[in-house]
Design goal:
alpha+beta; Serine Threonine Protein Phosphatase 5, Tetratricopeptide repeat; Lipocalin; Pdz3 Domain; ten-stranded mixed β-sheet; six-stranded antiparallel β-sheet; 30% strand; elongated
């Protein structure tokens, strides 16, 4: 024990304190009923933040010396250590993946009271940038679909957070929006499942002009700062490692908001037992979902792998309530690093994401749509609206044939744009010639009469 006390007196770093702990642990092994050895071990464990170890050592000290002169002080110290242990556990529980909205995900870590939040794809909005296009049809304001890296680093004081944030630069066609940074404040929700950050950010206006001489490429002619905006970033989490299987979709637009906030749409071959496509969501694990956001619904559907989400639904056709257990599992990642159903409707129509026509459309998307802001906006709208449509047509062969009939000429046009243009011109020329012939025939008939 004297060696441990000497190490404690000489300690200047956490590593030095660990040396003292090793000596004192040896003392408690050699003399397990020596109260003073346990007291000193508890003292050093508390200094390095091992609150569980310190609590165990002080508790053993009181068991061996309940009438010690400092027993009351040690009991008071135990209360303080338990509170610190709770706060450490509370902060540790913040770590993981969090949601902003229904789809944007952020990674949260906590170490030594420092909270870090990061994402590579923070969604930009009209409050970040005024994106204009011209000049063919004048200055047209386009929706913003860009993303940028975003990081936060702050200290936790009670339930309050404060620190620094920064956003990386990003491009909108030919215009590059510069990086931004500043201070933020915020708080942790009472239940530890909500983070709120508030900060002021710069707002920019850009103008991309389409150049006909450069085969439709854009030229950035304006890129200026036009003021500041206050943002309140709300994160919900952390998400559990398991989630209900991805064959389940949700849509907003209930027939009766009192009955439910979201309706289930599931693939016909993946309907869990007891669930129908018409079912409307009421609650998850006892939490009312009728007046909440889709992000909260998605959060509640996550949990520990191997558990089940107890989902209560309303079935309009029978005017009855049902409870269904939806198993949570670790989601399988696409080995190619993307979504196998990236072209939902085409995949449903042709039967496979690897089918030649689907591959052609996917390549057209990557080369010609995702390389410019209007195209990215179109793709974003398509991804938002097409999954339920694809689910509906997948098992209906007549609809699949009709969709293939519509898409096949599109694929031909993508593969042979110049030949398609010639065919269109030839068709228009032939149509105009036929109309001219019909007019001349009518005029001749009128002259004869």
């Amino acid at each position: 024990m004297l060696r441990g006390q000497a190490a404690l007196e000489m300690a200047k770093t956490p590593q030095d304190l660990k040396l003292a702990i090793r000596e004192l642990e040896q003392a408690t092994r050699l003399a397990p009923d020596w109260a003073d050895a346990h007291f000193n071990l508890g003292l050093v464990r508390a200094k390095i933040g091992d609150y569980a170890g310190a609590i165990a050592s002080y508790t053993r000290y009181l068991e061996l010396a309940p009438e010690a002169p400092d027993a009351a002080k040690v009991r008071d110290e135990l209360v303080k250590l338990e509170f610190r242990q709770e706060r450490v556990a509370f902060q540790k529980d913040l770590q993981g993946e969090w949601l902003s909205g229904a789809v944007n995900r952020y990674n949260v870590t906590v170490q030594d009271g420092v909270l870090r939040i990061s994402t590579k794809v923070k969604q930009m909005t009209g409050k970040d940038i005024e994106s204009l296009y011209g000049p063919i049809i004048g200055r047209m304001n386009m929706p913003v679909v860009e993303t940028a890296p975003f990081e936060v680093s702050g200290t936790i004081s009670g339930d309050s957070i404060s620190g620094e944030w920064k956003r990386g630069s990003y491009k909108v066609d030919a215009c590059e929006v510069p990086a931004d940074s500043g201070r933020f404040t915020g708080e942790i929700g009472p239940g530890g499942d909500r983070l709120t950050l508030r900060f002021n950010k710069k707002r920019f206006r850009i103008l991309n002009v389409t150049s006909i001489m450069r085969m439709g490429d854009s030229v950035c002619t304006e890129n200026v700062e036009i003021g500041t905006e206050e943002e309140e970033l709300v994160l919900l989490g952390p998400l559990g490692g398991g989630q209900v299987r991805s064959g389940i979709w949700f849509i907003v637009a209930p027939p009766n908001p009192e009955q439910g906030a979201y309706a289930f749409l599931v693939e016909d071959d993946e309907i869990p037992e007891g669930l129908h496509t018409e079912d409307v969501l009421l609650s998850i694990d006892g939490h009312d979902m009728r007046r909440t956001t889709l992000a909260v619904v998605w959060l509640r559907l996550h949990g520990e792998p191997g558990t089940s989400a107890q989902v209560e639904v309303w079935r309009p056709s029978t005017a009855s309530k049902h409870t269904v257990a939806l198993p949570r599992a670790i989601p399988q990642r696409d080995p190619a690093g993307g979504s196998s159903a990236a072209c939902f409707i085409a995949t449903a129509a042709y039967g496979s994401p690897l089918e030649e026509h689907v591959a052609t459309l996917r390549e057209f998307r990557d080369r010609h749509l995702l390389t410019n802001a209007p195209g990215r906006w179109f793709v974003a709208q398509y991804y938002e609206l097409s999954p339920p449509v694809a689910d509906y047509i997948r098992e209906r062969e007549n609809l699949r044939a009709m969709v293939r009939g519509v898409l096949t000429p599109v694929v031909f046009a993508v593969n042979s744009p110049w030949l398609t243009l010639l065919l269109v011109l030839a068709t228009l020329t032939g149509w105009r010639g036929w109309r001219r012939y019909r007019v001349q025939r009518r005029q001749m008939s009128m002259r004869i009469v």
